[in-house]
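We treat protein structure as text, and this decision shapes the records that our systems exchange. We quote a single record here, exactly as it is kept in our systems:
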Amino acid sequence: MKALSVKHKWFGESDLRLDASYHLSDGPLTKLKLKKSPYEVTSLKRVTEDVFKGNIFKRTYVDNPETGFHFMTASDMMKSNIESGKFVSKKYTDTANLLLKKGWILVSRSGTLGNTVYTNEDFEGVLGTDDLIRIIPCEKEILGGYMYGYLSSKYGYGLLTQSGYGGVVQHIEPHHIEDLSIPILPDSKQQEIHNLILEASNLRVEANKLLSEAVEYFESFIGESKVHLGFQTGKISSKSLNSYHKRLDSQFQLLWNDLESEEIESINYEKVYDNAKSIFVGGRGKRNYVEKGVAFLSSSDMMLFNPKRGCKYVSKNNPGLDSMMVSKKDILISRSGTVGNTVLVGEDLAGTAISEHALRLVINPDKISPNYVFCFLKTKYGMKSMEASSFGSVIITLNEDLIGNINLPILDQGSQDKINELIESYLVKMDEATKKENQAIDLVEKEIESWQK
């Protein structure tokens, strides 16, 4: 419980907001800190070309990318790769205020408030949900990268989320943040922060291109799976019912029959568990959250482009912590709800505690490269193999045995080496991008903290 004595003049400064949550947020504390700024503090509206949200529209989804716009939600924008696989009809969609451009700042405005993204070329021409506020920096007085770094800091976040309203689903509107205070730092400091953000943004573009190149190269040998995961009918032999796990569910039998029919005769296939040191689910149990401890991520958090920014922390004495923590080159697979989201642990995620909803696949590097297995799981055949293996009528689930039973194609050593190199470069660039972005945000926060002495 929090309590605070407020002054009557504050109500006039806050659009006559009487709800306690507004005045008890981090926003008022940030405003007090900004009053100590040795530099001019201006409003967001004054240093932007526009602050607006997209129009509400009916979504008519299509399967063909040629007839649709790539559609992105507020949660999609936070992922390391924004390719959602969702497309809305070009014919039936009015794109007014919806198409995105490079160099904008996006802010989530409904449900989860205040998440921010600096758009790179991957966002160009993507159709974004109406649940995003678009900020177009003017850059005459404030550089876009610095503006993003400030809004992504704990101080910017406190100001962005202060005006949230709604009894069940929280919202913010563009007019709520137009008067948001932002200090105009010296050009040299702004440029330093801006450059770090640009470098991070460009590194993510390069990393995603490397991942796509690796997956496309892999699929040039095994093909792009055409297996349909929706409703279907077919025939299977009685012998197959007595095979792995003796599963009687038709979806499993039909999908695996289709997947095995796509296997290439000239390629050798091995079970994933034959190349793994271990496949297991992380520790379950009560989580003791603390202000400072071990970073803790959910299976959805691990997919984000900067996963530990704003994350929770668990106590170093939390029961079962060792089995929750992950190591470099572990492969993490979401195993309940949305199954098959896959992450390769790099420098940034190593030593982080991950929810039990992410299954751990630890590959034996003496047999095969973890990079190679990760790339396979990113192919259409790999992803459909995971989805086809899942079970459950309400909450779809994967377990260790089902992942271990997936057929892994073994390409020639030269092809494996090329895939390994591409994925290694991908991982290094993603880690470097996260490092540079966090350096930029730290510079903003340390600058503001230096004024409080």
